[in-house]
Write a structure and sequence with these properties.
single chain; alpha+beta; 7-stranded mixed sheet; 7 helices
Amino acid sequence: ERCLTSLREVTDYPDIEVVVVDHQSTEGKAREVIDSLADDPTAVVVPFSGPFNFAAMINRAAEAASGSVLVLLNNDTEIIDPGWLTELVAQVCRPEVGVAGALLTFGNRTIQHAGVHPGVGGLMGHGHKHLSDGHPGYFGRLLVAHEVAAVTGACLAIQTATWERLGGLDEENLAVAYNDIDLCLKARQAGLRVVFTPHARLTHHESVSRGADSDPVRQDRLDGEMAVMRDRWGGLLQVDPAYSPNLDLDGSGFDLADPPRVYPPWSVVG
C-alpha cells in the first residue's frame, strides 16, 4: 500500500500504468489493496501462482504492460522524489543507454543501492552501502549520473523495445537472484550502457516481503544461480566501468587494495 500510494501521490510523471503481480496473496490487507485496483483504469493486476520466481513474475508483468518504457519496482519501495521517474525515463531514452537505476536508501536514510560492482563482497556487491544519504561518494560520483556494471532490479528502467531485444529476465535459470545483473550484462554485451543516476531517489525497505537467503534450501538455490552466472559470463563478471582494479574487494568498496590486485606490466617477470 505504501508503495502504490506514494507512487500515485508523489510521482509527477504524467502518464503511468501500474502493473501489479498478485502472487497468491491471502493476507487481508494485501487482498484489500490489490482488489481495490479492479476499478482503476490505469492499473492491471497479473495473477501468478506457484513457487516464488521473481524473473517469471516480472516477465508476465512486462507482457501485460502497454508502455514504451518499463520500470521494475519492488513492492517494498517508497517514492520520496517527485521527479524520479522523469529522470529514469530521460536516461533510458538516450540511444546509447540500455538500463538505468536509481539511488535507493534504507528507512534510516543510509544508502542501500548506488550501483552494483563485480567482486565487491562476493559475486556482486553494492558500492557506497550504508553511507549517509547526501554523501558525495567516492570522488563525488554520487553527485552525478554515471555508467556502472549493473543496477538492482528493485528499481530498474528499460525501454520495452530493449527489454524484448534482450529477452527479459531468465526465469529458467535465475528465478530469484542475479536475474537483474544478468539483464544488465546482456545490455552491455549488446553495446548499451548501464547508468546509475542519483537524481532519482527512493526508499527501499529491503526484502521485507521475501525474507533472507539463510536457510539451506535457499542457499542451495543461490549457489546454483551463482554458478549459472559464472558459467555464462566468465571474465566479464570482473569487468567494471565504475570500479578500479586498484581498489579492494573487502565488501565496503572504494578503498585502495593492499596488496594491489593488478600490477603494471613492466613489473611482471617471466
